[in-house]
Design goal:
The protein has 66 residues and is an alpha+beta fold. It is 35% helix and 18% strand. The protein is built from three helices and two strands; from the N terminus they run αααββ.
């Protein structure tokens, strides 16, 4: 996923399984920087994680579902 994102020419939306998102976050940030609930329970269904130029902007937000 990290290589895929690095090769993108501009802003895009990518939809993937939460496990792939968790692995990406672990690679980019390391386990210590992740919220404990992400490592324990995983990414919630329909959550949004935003990455800008491989910099994590938002992790597993579900605020759009309210």
């Amino acid at each position: 996923m990290q290589a895929f994102l690095a090769d993108l020419p501009g802003p895009v939306a990518v939809i993937t399984h939460g496990g792939i998102t968790t692995d990406l976050l672990r690679n980019l940030l390391g386990d210590d920087a992740l919220p404990p609930h992400v490592l324990d329970a995983g990414i919630p269904p329909c959550a949004v994680t935003a990455v800008d130029d491989l910099n994590v902007v938002m992790i597993a937000s579900t605020s759009h579902l309210l």
